[in-house]
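Quick one:
INPUT:
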């Protein structure tokens, strides 16, 4: 990975101002090339998905992996003091999606020189497909977080300052259609598969490898299908079947991730918040630490640091003296820890679900073992996987418990993904934080205050349509 991030990122590229309109980018000096915008969007997306910043991504706390030491409001589901939802909208609609929209505009407006006339149509189709796959990923994440969202009228770069909200189920169906077309549009033939024609090192995910993008697209389609399994079984099975037949991730070599660098501003957002901030804000959550201790899970030495030779987690929702509890593991104190967007471990759990639900994608028990083994391998503990699987075998009579519990443990460093597994499968059984503002673990985020200020009619209509703008209102696919 070349130091492409540092060379083009945004201190020199964008100028600053602020706005509450999700269609307007405060960094809107788009005097650049599409590849630069793609790099920006990918880094911003990875930063959001992976950061533990309490201002924008608290899902390590929600999933009871970590506990705050001093300021425990977010552990107890108070997300309003820091306007967390506002920042989620800015991260995704402004920093990610607006960059991708503008990149598409520049590609569509480009006039090829004579030497490019024959190859440009194919290159253009490939580049637009890659960008659209990233948009699908981002919109799915927004639906999964909020429910109904601005979609068909969003990201018009100032063309609509009050976008309507679209029904979440309708958005999902459209995302599946888009993704299928994107995968079809990617042409991996040799004359169109030059890295220099497909963003090259500006593509932080796959360095312009179109075959890898196809695999990622199919894996994302599998995720979309599995997610709606309880709300639209026929579309879910059809989508999952297509994805599996087309080819999903089969090893960690297919992982979608950003390799962070050793210096600011391109180091890991986990490192930024845990080490570089010179603060001791997080320790292990008692729920996960106790489970791993009880089940002799050797990954605990990678997930956390011992205190006096043992691993100790704090009660969820309670303040903690940093020295008395297990801090996050070395990965959190390493600047170059990659940012994960999707990996094979996650996909193997989806394949387990597909096998359990529909008898497709291979034997559920085999994929379950593959998922757990992949997780142990990712954390440098391959030799311990077989014994752990033997002690925690796949249970076809209660496969949701098997998958839900083990995905929760394995998705420790992918908390947004973990939140989806937990809401869909209802395992493990998590109790609300000790001083929680509600009587259950949150199943969605509330809409941003900024939307009530600038887009009140549409956000109020959306809140009414989903059954109330509450942390306890379930997303349309969360049926259990």
């Amino acid at each position: 990975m070349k130091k492409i991030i540092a060379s083009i990122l945004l201190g020199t590229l964008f100028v600053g101002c602020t706005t509450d309109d999700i269609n307007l980018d405060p960094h809107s000096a788009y005097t650049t090339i599409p590849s630069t915008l793609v790099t920006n969007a990918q880094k911003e997306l990875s930063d959001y998905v992976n950061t533990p910043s309490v201002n924008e991504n608290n899902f390590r706390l929600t999933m009871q992996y970590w506990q705050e030491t001093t300021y425990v409001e977010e552990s107890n589901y108070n997300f309003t003091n820091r306007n967390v939802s506002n920042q989620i909208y800015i991260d995704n609609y402004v920093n990610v999606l607006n960059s991708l929209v503008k990149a598409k505009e520049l590609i569509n407006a480009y006039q090829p020189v004579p030497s490019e006339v024959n190859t440009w149509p194919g290159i253009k189709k490939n580049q637009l497909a890659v960008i659209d796959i990233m948009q699908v990923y981002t919109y799915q994440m927004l639906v999964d977080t909020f429910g109904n969202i601005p979609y068909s009228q969003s990201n018009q770069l100032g063309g609509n300052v009050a976008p309507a909200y679209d029904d979440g189920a309708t958005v999902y169906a459209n995302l599946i259609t888009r993704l299928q077309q994107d995968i079809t549009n990617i042409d991996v033939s040799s004359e169109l598969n030059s890295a220099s024609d497909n963003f090259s090192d500006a593509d932080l995910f796959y360095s312009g490898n179109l075959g890898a993008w196809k695999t990622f697209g199919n894996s994302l389609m599998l995720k979309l299908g599995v997610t709606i399994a309880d709300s639209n079984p026929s579309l879910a099975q059809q989508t999952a079947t297509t994805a599996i037949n087309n080819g999903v991730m089969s090893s960690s070599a297919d992982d979608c991730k950003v390799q962070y660098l050793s210096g600011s501003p391109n180091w890991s957002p986990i490192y930024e918040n845990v080490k570089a901030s010179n603060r001791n804000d997080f320790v292990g959550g008692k729920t996960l630490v106790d489970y791993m201790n009880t089940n002799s899970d050797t990954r605990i030495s990678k997930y956390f640091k011992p205190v006096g030779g043992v691993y100790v987690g704090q009660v969820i929702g309670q303040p903690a003296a940093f020295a008395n509890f297990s801090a996050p593991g070395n990965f959190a104190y390493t600047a170059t820890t990659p940012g994960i967007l999707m990996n094979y471990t996650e996909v193997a759990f989806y394949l387990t679900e597909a096998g359990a639900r529909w008898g497709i994608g291979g034997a559920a028990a085999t994929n379950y073992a593959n998922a757990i083994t992949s997780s142990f391998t990712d954390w440098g503990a391959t030799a311990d996987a077989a014994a752990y699987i033997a002690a925690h075998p796949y249970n076809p009579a209660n496969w949701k418990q098997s998958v839900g519990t083990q995905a929760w443990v394995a998705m420790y460093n992918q908390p947004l993904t973990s939140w989806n597994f937990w809401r869909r499968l209802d395992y493990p059984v998590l109790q609300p934080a000790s001083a929680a503002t509600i009587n259950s673990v949150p199943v969605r985020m509330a809409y941003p205050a900024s939307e009530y200020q600038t887009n009140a009619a549409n956000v109020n209509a959306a809140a009414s349509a989903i059954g109330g703008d509450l942390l306890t209102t379930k997303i349309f696919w969360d049926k259990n």
